[in-house]
Amino acid sequence: MPSLAQASRAAVDALGALPNAIDPFALSLNENPFPPLPAVRAALIHAVDAANRYPEFLPESMRTMIARHIGVGAEQVVLGAGATGVVMQVLQAVTEPGDRIVLASPTFDGYPIFARIARLAPVSVPLDERGHHDFAAMAQAAAGARVVVVCRPHNPTGTLESIADVERFMTRIPADTIVLLDEAYIEFVAPDYRIDCPDLVRHFPNVVVLRTFSKAYGLAGLRIGYGFGSPQLTETLWSMQLPFGMDITSAVAVAASYNAEEQLQQRISRIVSERDYLRRRLSTMGVYSTDSHANFVYLPPASRPWREVFTGLLVRHYADGGVRITVGGRVATQAVLHAVNDSSACCVSGIGGVR
After folding, report:
1. Which stretches make up the Aminotransferase class I/classII large domain (predicted)?
2. Under CATH, which number does the domain 9-37+260-341 receive?
3. What are the domain boundaries of the chain?
4. Which of 4, 32, 172, 195 is the most exposed place for a label (fewest CB within 10 A)?
């Protein structure tokens, strides 16, 4: 058995391994730069006192709470360990090994991994030169696919397909092909550009809308995600809901977050304002970024590799030379701008050509 000193050291090491809640240079994972809202933090501290007890066998209370908030029936909601957990529930429920899954390229890093875990055959469709989905090519690929993924806003470009384009795209997808509409960043989108998703799943019962508390709500470490769709489809998904699968703090964190809506919107506004400021400043320096509607900015490949520019910052680089930068506070923004300014030879960029 380990000695007391060894056990104490392990505890210290575990605490030391926790990420810093406020790190202005952690710009690679699209995390919220702020720690949990005060009311949410207080609720979580209170909930920890019940950590010796199991959560609900199935998370019915949280299911009902989320359903009421988004305006659907409780029977239409499924829950998971982040939106990624819901994705795996869907793939396990509706696919067989060898089925095809259509993905934009590049896309969220998780989707190729999920496809591999589920033993699916990914079909990659490149984004267009502005970083948008090529819906015509994706609809063509969907003819023989079991699942199609649409991220709105898209990750990593932050681009947003119009409501009309999305609805037209849905009409071209076979009724037995499942569409995952990934809205992980939807809270950063202006209300006028948001799809009425409860209405969408009424018209298209093959759609599952994915959302998360990891981004705008700032609860990435708690792994709370959900999906909703038609009652017929979610009945199948709920049958695969993992017993005791959502920890005892989850429902408390969700309830406290919903109750702190005004504070949440203030934080979202700060992030959106900082994103727009960063894009404007980059533009004045000759650096093109895609039209982001999320909490990050994407820079297409430039005449000099971005890896040589952002040497001291944790940003997400892509194989084609593009880079995604999470929006932080003003300190983070200044660090990004200084890095670009100090690399004056590089910084004219654009999708499909130099700008």
Report:
1. 25-305
2. 3.90.1150.10
3. 9-37+260-341, 52-258
4. 4
Phi and psi torsions of 171, nearest 5°: -70, -20
Q: What is the pTM for the complete model shown?
A: 0.92
- Count of other CB atoms within 10 angstroms of residue 13: 9
Instruction: Pick the closest to residue 100 from 138, 144, 136 (CA basis).
Output: 144
Strands 323-326 and 314-317: what pairing? antiparallel
Phi, psi of 11 (to 5 degrees): -65, -40
Task: Name the 3-class secondary structure at 305.
Answer: coil
Q: Which residue in this structure is represented by tokens 């019962």?
A: 205
* Chain segment 76-111, per-residue pLDDT in tens: 999 999 999 999 999 999 999 999 999 999 999 999
Residue 247, phi then psi, degrees to nearest 5: -70, 170
C-alpha distances out from residue 48 to 15, 18, 34, 243, 253, Å: 16, 17, 21, 20, 11
CATH architecture of 52-258: 3-Layer(aba) Sandwich (3.40)
Non-local CB neighbours of 306 within 8 Å, separated by 6+ positions: 299, 315, 317, 321, 322, 323, 346
Q: What are phi and psi of 278, to 5 degrees?
A: -60, -45
Query: How many Cβ atoms sit within 10 Å of the Cβ of residue 182?
Result: 26
pLDDT in tens, 306-329: 999 998 889 999 988 999 999 999
156 DSSP β-pair partners: none
